[in-house]
Specification:
One of its GO terms (biological process) is D-glucose import. The protein is mainly α. It has 2 domains: about 200 residues, MFS general substrate transporter like domains (Growth Hormone, Chain: A), CATH 1.20.1250.20; about 220 residues, MFS general substrate transporter like domains (Growth Hormone, Chain: A), CATH 1.20.1250. Helix 14 runs antiparallel to helix 19. The radius of gyration is 24 Å and the shape is globular. The N terminus and C terminus are likely disordered.
């Protein structure tokens, strides 16, 4: 009798704590985001501050070797290689996602990935002693591969271990750590700290420390239960991992949902990138992530950061103080992304995407006006500062974090690695393209180049409004059914199982789906 009572109690307890944030889940999210995503952000902005000192080092090294000073054209080429090798490495890293996460698991991939970062950190940190600048350029490629893997695997891993009601909030955590990484690099890069002739090798080498911490701590945490059950077929390990992550023993519902996903996928098998691109049942999901990733990178976020210093100088900020203003923009970015973590579950993904791209679109349009008129109208330079801040807020709440959350949610287990590979490649390719093309665009169009970004934001808003569904608080299977109707395909499912599984709430769920499709 007592046993029955206890059982009753434990099932009540599991009902109460459905989807609560447990300590273990929070730690996994923090360790994987700090060890991986943080460094993506850190290395994006780490070479901005010490650029002049690093260029002097390139010049001096070349002079010591050849006895003649470096040609200015060659120096520009070397520097643009140093900057652009990072997103190019990111593209290579994205192409490695699919084989690695399928063979080594999500956690395994993150651990292997740390070796890239630690190698690059040692090489960059010792480059001045070794008197070689080639090593810095090589290390930027290696660091890019690291960031390419990290930017895809962390959201995938965290999305798979989160309960459905926390998936959005935990999915924004990697982006939060990317912005923290950018901010930390900006602070350490101040002239008074490490952004000087002596400090820059240390500034570049610091990136290895988070990797070392992750390498030591992450092995003690569980692997993704979905990977263990659906890809490895090991239900016992999946159940243990899930019980640890949820903090209670009764995980039958989630295991059943994974089994159901597994059955639905047996029909389709594993997706490679090619089969993903040609499979009709995932057509709209694929187009959606490509559009969102292109929108995210081509909406001009790099250009706004690039222009920020000049905008503040023209508004009368002293040259020596511009670096502190850049840090404050980095801080706004962190605070707004932190806000996104807390509001993504209540407002939903769609609203944040639309609002984020909307703010970016409006601020790009007004910024074009303000930059053109700032020589004639005195207060226009202050308006351009406001535009930069509004733009950063828009990008931080929607355009930056949500697309990665959506890749996790719109695809099932077998197609998710291939989808991240496509999304990640588009992300890094567009990043690389903006880096190369923007300087020419700016030379040719000046402030009008922001009109192009404005148009791209507008096109992305229109697409999201008509095509992208709301995914908050839905299981992966429910989201899959919504998209199946859009793709006009039938989903193969074990009907008997489903009848038992959704006996009561089935009707409500169907209603809910049909209403969300009309959005």
């Amino acid at each position: 009798m007592k046993l029955k009572g206890e059982k009753q109690e434990s099932s009540n307890c599991s009902e109460d704590s459905k989807g609560k944030m447990t300590l273990l889940l929070a730690l996994v999210a923090l360790i994987s985001a700090f060890g991986s995503s943080f460094q993506y952000g850190y290395n994006v902005s780490v070479i901005n501050s010490p650029a002049p000192y690093m260029q002097d080092f390139y010049n001096q090294t070349y002079f010591n070797r050849t006895g003649v000073p470096m040609d200015s054209g060659f120096q520009t080429l070397l520097w643009s290689l140093t900057v652009s090798m990072y997103p190019l490495g990111g593209l290579f890293g994205s192409l490695m996602v699919w084989p690695l996460v399928n063979n080594c698991g999500r956690k395994g991939t993150l651990l292997i990935n740390n070796l890239f970062s630690i190698t690059a950190a040692i090489l960059m940190g010792t480059s001045e002693l070794a008197k070689t600048f080639e090593v810095i350029i090589l290390s930027r490629v290696i660091m890019g591969i690291y960031a390419g893997l990290a930017s895809n695997v962390v959201p995938m891993f965290l999305g798979e271990i989160s309960p459905k009601n926390l998936r959005g909030a935990i999915g924004v955590v990697p982006q939060l750590f990317i912005t923290i990484g950018i901010l930390v690099a900006q602070i350490f890069g101040l002239n008074s700290i490490l952004g000087n002739a002596e400090g820059w090798p240390v500034l570049l080498g610091l990136t290895g420390i988070p990797s070392l911490i992750q390498l030591l701590i992450l092995p003690f945490f569980p692997e993704s239960p979905r990977y263990l059950l659906i890809q490895k077929g090991n239900e016992e390990q999946a159940r243990q991992a899930l019980q640890k992550l949820r903090g209670w023993d009764d995980v039958d519902d989630e295991i059943e949902e994974m089994r159901q996903e597994d059955r639905s996928e047996k029909e389709e098998g594993h997706f490679s990138v090619l089969s993903l691109c040609t499979f009709r049942g995932l057509r709209w999901q694929l187009i959606s992530i490509v559009v969102m990733m292109m929108g995210q990178q081509l909406s001009g976020v790099n250009a706004v950061f690039y222009y920020a210093d000049r905008i503040f100088q023209s508004a009368g900020v002293d040259n020596n103080n511009v670096q502190y203003v850049t840090v404050s923009i980095g801080a706004i970015n962190v605070v707004m992304t932190l806000l996104a973590v807390f509001i993504v579950e209540s407002l939903g993904r769609r609203i944040l995407l639309l609002a984020g791209f909307g703010l970016c679109c409006v601020s790009c349009a007004v910024l074009t006006l303000a930059l053109n008129l700032q020589t004639t109208v005195s207060w226009m330079s202050y308006l351009s500062i406001v535009c930069v801040i509004v733009y950063i807020i828009g990008h931080a709440i929607g355009a930056s974090p949500i697309p990665f959350v959506m890749i996790t949610e719109m695809f099932l287990q077998s197609s998710r690695p291939a989808a991240f590979m496509v999304g990640g490649s588009v992300h890094w390719l567009c990043n690389f393209t903006v880096g190369l093309v923007f300087l020419y665009m700016e030379a040719g169009l000046g402030p009008y180049s922001f009109l192009i970004f404005c148009a791209i934001c507008l096109a992305t808003i229109v697409y999201i409004f008509f095509i992208v569904p709301e995914t908050k608080n839905k299981t992966f299977m429910e989201i899959n059914r919504i998209m199946a109707k859009r793709n006009k395909v039938e989903i193969q499912e074990d009907k008997e199982e489903l009848k038992d599984f959704h006996s009561a709430p089935g009707g409500q769920r169907e209603k809910k789906e049909s209403s969300s499709i009309e959005l």
